[in-house]
Amino acid sequence: MRMIPLILITALILILSLEESDANPLPPASHLPVIKEFPDPFLMQSGKRLTTKREWNARRKEIISLILGYEYGHMPPPPRNLTYQLSSTESTLDGTATLRKYLLEFGAKHACKLHMELLVPNGDGPFPVILTGDGCWGEAPLQNEIIRRGYILAQFDRTEIAPDSPQRDIGVYPLYPGYDWGSLAAWAWGYSRAVDFLEKLPIVDKRRIAITGHSRGGKTVLLAGALDTRIALTNPNDSGCGGAGSFRFHGEGSETLASICKVFPFWFSPNLQQFTTEVDRLPFDQHFLTSLVAPRALLLTDALGDAWGNPSGTQLVYLATKETYRFLGALEKLGSWYRPGEHAHNAQDWAALLDFADFQFFHKSHPDDFSGRSFPNEPTAFTWKAP
Ligand code: GCU
Fold it and tell me: Ligand 1 pocket: which residues have CB below 6 Å?
């Protein structure tokens, strides 16, 4: 007898939650207004503009639902059953560090597997961490320097989580059917699982976890850092279109929304396709995504010769993001850094990240210019200001 009300209540909750999601689908692009400049991140969907910092959390939720709904797709909840095994340890870098290899297992029936390698400085820690999922592209540079500055370098291969292809029958996709996520969201979800793991290790300084990635890996870390508030510092490198580059404003020769949707549709939610000829109907631009990182630390690193990566359109996103950091009283947490040269994640980029991390985490001074003004003649992409 006592079971019946419980069953009824559960059914009612299910019906209500289904109705709620059905009743409020995001409108199609054709029903959205044309907005030629960057949309105002401080304007709530109700039409009311934010006035106090305390209202930001509610707006943040609205922005997350726009970004996931139209751009990247939705992710499953954290699995909460992650286990790991240490498979080997080895002294390395002339005895200054230990390489520890782990196997992580999580998700339904522990079917998701992820290999992680940690390069750990000698000593007890806890150490701050630089985490990257770009293991598929080879080893990170500057390993001696990372260790010398007292950081753990944690590396994994994001393509173990999901392939960099349209294939949907491998990686996490078959384990979580029914999600509209593309590879960028799946990879970002993988970053959060790596953080689940790092948080379990006593040698890790949980308040000082930084993530970095390049190009498609940069788009990934920006999404991961936007959503996962355990990540203290986010560094997308040359992330361009679908990363920190604007969809609306481009420098000459830069990748467009139409182009990325044609060549890499599987990186995104299928919903993004409807904007290929209607970019100005997007209810956001990428400054909405970067703003989700605030007030945590965010460093955009870009190359002036990387025309395809839209360095000037990234500066506009940076300037718009500054308004959110100003609003939240965290301007010193935001940085943008440009170097001459081509599309790459090179030692210079890594050194800039280490300087920025030393500054953010340990208040160390640095020689770098993190004020991001490399294109003085760019048009203003927005007319609003932080409230
Ligand atoms: C392609 C793609 C870019 C991406 C880059 C990369 O050039 O068009 O959006 O950033 O690959 O990941 O290297």
Answer: 215-216, 240-241, 255, 260, 308
